[in-house]
Protein 1
Amino acid sequence: MTIVVGYLATAEGEAALTAAMTEATRRSSRLLVLVSQRRGEDTAVLEANLDSVRTRLDDAGLGYEVRQVERGRDVADDLIDAAEASDAELIVIGLRRRSPVGKLILGSNAQRILLDAPTPVLAVKS
């Protein structure tokens, strides 16, 4: 089985990757890591981040695939589509800290993933 994780080079992305690695180890599953490029992020920085992710996964001995998602596409759609295509058992996402008002309304991507995902979703905070 496969666990899909959304990754950005942020504290939330790191928390999501760590949680996904823990779940993959516990479930003996493969990871499908979808990496998004942050707005304004240099391509060289993105490649360094991808190398770091691959090294962590190699060191953990996990089976994995890392895919970079196209800029401009909807991240929620990318995660949901990947989960459906890989018959995933779980999606893992990171959540940002929100203000009291922001807590009433989750981020639009997180909310769409939680509501539309074909599988259970594990949402973690940094």
Protein 2
Amino acid sequence: MTISDRVRIKDVRVLSDGWTTLKTTTFEYRRASGEWQTQHRETYERDNAAAVLPYNLAGRTVILVRQFRLPAFIRGYDDLLIEAAAGVLDNVEPEERIRAEAEEETGYRLHHVHKVFEAFMSPGAITEKLHFFVAEYEPSMRVSDGGGLAHEGEDIEVLELSIDEALAMIADGRIIDAKAIMLLQYAALHVFR
């Protein structure tokens, strides 16, 4: 039996269709006992996205970005978030999109990106799946100051940190972005070992 055999969608309603689409779904789910249970869930329908951690082996450095995030602010985080550069795919292949996003946000034109894994970041509420990449960079690959696209509301600061400092920032709570944490831990285990 597949999961498709255990789910019967009964009703889907759009609650909001702005920056993202919020839907409410009524469905029946067959529990492990075989009993059917009616459930209701709200989901944010988001396109898939990609994130990248540029790294420099010789300098033992990584590139991260710092920017304002309204949801974090609403939850009481009174600072800019330090993150991995990332963006929504917008119907483009993940490798192509993340190269463009890295250049927009960080100012680095990355030549080769390496996909390391995929993950649902909040599968209980958001449909988005992220494609995670690492990419080696050299100072000569910097083609602009980065900073994102002002017409998209981006006001991004580019950070070049040592891998050791970035890992310490996870430990002391200065980096709390899941994308950055996952990619930095991947880099510590597989890139900078």
Protein 3
Amino acid sequence: MIISFDIGGTAIKGGIARSETDIVPLGRRPTPKDDFAAFVETLRDIIAETGERPSRIALSIAGVVDPDTQRLICANIPCIHGRTLAADLETELGLPVLIANDADCFAMAEAGLGAGRGHRIVFGAILGTGVGGGLVADGRLVNEAGGFAGEWGHGPIIASAAGNPPVAIPAYACGCGQKGCVDTVGGARGLERLHQTLHNLDLSSEEIIAQWQHGEEKATRTIDVYVDLVASPLALTINITGATIVPVGGGLSNVEPLLAELDHAVRARILRKFERPLVVRSECRIEPGLIGAALLGLKAEAA
């Protein structure tokens, strides 16, 4: 038995995994952001609640492990940022610890138990508040040792003009320190930013999408530009990785007409032609971080 954790800036969720088909969620607790001792104690309490001693724990975290130093980059939870977290937790808990990025865990969940089943190369894309991704090949996470593979949301590659007819697009500043990243336009906040740029209107992503689905002219223009901007970097990612399925998670994945538009645009821009949908809604809708971390932990146990 292993215990997996999905650790976010707001809550820590746990789960018990005995096999790929036996993963049971536990409760959730607030994340101690500024107190490492309290963070460890929260994990210890969740472990104790199971009444069993796991063989290891596996964590899905909204952060990245530096593959050279094994230090965690996790700005939204200061008490674990910069730590060699796996080693520190192994010392505190006396258990083997595996850590993976949350988007990587999402991709692993989709490859193992979701829309990516039966595919050799799966690229999991997140279109949520921002943009993320993870890459699984032959059932193995490319970032098993940490690193940034799958981070298609970052890099100064957004087109300077998009839509039909084309309209100029600013190189928006990104939180990563660069300008013109997919993350600046591809998530919900990016969609809102585009709408404000195009029409000088401040609407929520939900309002923009609702208006688009009712045929409103300005929202339709925004979605046209959005799809044009996002489809090209996603198509490039598919060409480079050879992915044959792209499960999409995050809030925007709930808008299936938007995914259909994006899928159509992406398939028109890639080298390998597919007659079936390629960019699809994810299937692991509940706790993909827990599932992905559990699958990684179970694979580590079997190795």
